[in-house]
Design brief:
Immunoglobulin-like; 6-stranded mixed beta sheet; elongated; Rossmann fold; about 30% strand; alpha+beta; about 350 residues; 8 helices
Length: about 350
């Protein structure tokens, strides 16, 4: 905490007040009238009270946000809260700016208000992009009633600001459709043993053609499908990996959205540093595009479990990735969904022993 300074505002902006004070002094000295001295003393008293008020130490401030502040990119503003030992600031006379080091970002406060013994400062969100912003510096400027003098205090925020990706709720339904289609691909057709028959039901869009029960279909004249015992019980791992060839932020927002809304087994992200847990907000803010797919392929192999279904979300489907998924036996129940922001998410690749390897979801 530093920078407790008292300084003049622009004299040009306050020329009227300065001329009024000088005029009263001139009138009192020239005519030596009692009224002139009364006016002079009155104006001097007003300015003196303003100066004394500003000279009084600015109320001690303690940050409440000790933990990293997770900023919702979908909200128009975010709020910083500070603990005050006593109320001194007039919200109408207080201005605050937030500067992010190593950038040109300067945020002007939208609102200053009190909540009991807390000072709440609201700042706009739209200027901040996704990322982690450590060592942001807050500057408080408190002015007197007439705008003649100002007092400034600078505070270094010890907790970083974390801006997560934007939520895209309109992508929930397209992903649910893709996910239900993936779940309907029977595990016995994905390289696992055949399981007991659970039920025979009406055919649903997305059912694999090998599950059609032709005997029941011929009897009922309605297309019927077989449902295997644990067809939908396989755990699903969802992994995000994307390069910088366009659509990285859009793909990450898509992954972030479904991670917030769906209850699945495992969520993780890959970049050049390795595997990051999607349960930690800072990982979403700090994630960067990968630069070398080769370095990620071994990580993909090591993280795959034979009893799990894996869904990879990316912005671009590379031939190197499809070759690896096709050739590596352990990646047999893996599906690749591509989204770059231009179209709806698409199932671009699936690895199933008896299913077609390449092609969009039906």
């Amino acid at each position: 905490m530093r920078g407790r300074r008292l300084y003049f505002s622009s004299l040009l902006n306050n020329l009227l007040w300065v001329l009024t004070l000088l005029g009263a002094l001139y009138f009192a000295l020239t005519f030596n009238l009692k009224l002139g001295w009364i006016v002079l003393y009155f104006l001097a008293g007003i300015y003196g009270v303003n100066i004394i008020t500003l000279l009084y130490p600015i109320a001690p401030i303690e940050t409440i946000n000790d933990e990293p502040l997770d900023i919702d990119a979908n909200q128009p503003s975010f709020t910083l809260a500070f603990q005050l030992k006593h109320r001194q600031y007039d919200p109408h006379s207080l201005q605050a700016t937030l500067r992010v080091p190593h950038t040109s970002i300067v945020l002007e406060t939208l609102e200053c208000r009190y909540d009991h013994d807390q000072l709440l400062l609201a700042f706009p969100t739209d200027i901040l992009g996704r990322g982690v912003y450590p060592n942001a510096r807050l500057t408080l400027v408190y002015s007197d009633r007439f705008g003649m003098f100002k007092r400034r205090r600078s505070i270094l925020l010890t907790s970083p600001l974390i801006v997560s990706p934007q939520l895209r709720p309109e992508l929930d339904e397209p992903f649910n459709i893709l996910y239900q289609n993936i779940r309907r691909i029977p595990l016995s057709l994905s390289g696992r043993k055949t399981f007991d028959l659970k039920n025979i039901r009406k055919y649903q869009s997305g059912d694999h053609f090998k599950l059609i029960d032709w005997k029941s279909t011929s009897k009922s004249n309605v297309l019927m499908s077989r449902e295997l015992e644990d067809e939908h019980q396989m755990d699903t791992d969802i992994l995000f990996m994307a390069d910088n060839q366009g659509g990285f932020e859009e793909a990450l927002s898509f992954f972030y959205t479904i991670q917030k809304t769906m209850d699945l087994t495992s969520w993780s992200m890959l970049d050049d540093e390795g595997t990051l847990a999607a349960s930690i907000p800072m990982n979403f803010a700090a994630l960067q595009p990968y630069t070398s797919l080769s370095s990620l392929i071994q990580t993909l192999h090591n993280t795959q479990q034979s009893t799990h279904r894996k869904i990879i979300i990316t912005n671009t489907l590379h031939d190197e990735l499809t070759a690896f998924l096709t050739q590596d036996p352990i990646m047999n129940h893996t599906f690749v969904i591509v989204y770059s922001g231009t179209n709806l998410p698409e199932l671009k690749y699936q690895v199933s022993r008896f299913a077609s390897n390449r092609g969009p979801s039906r």
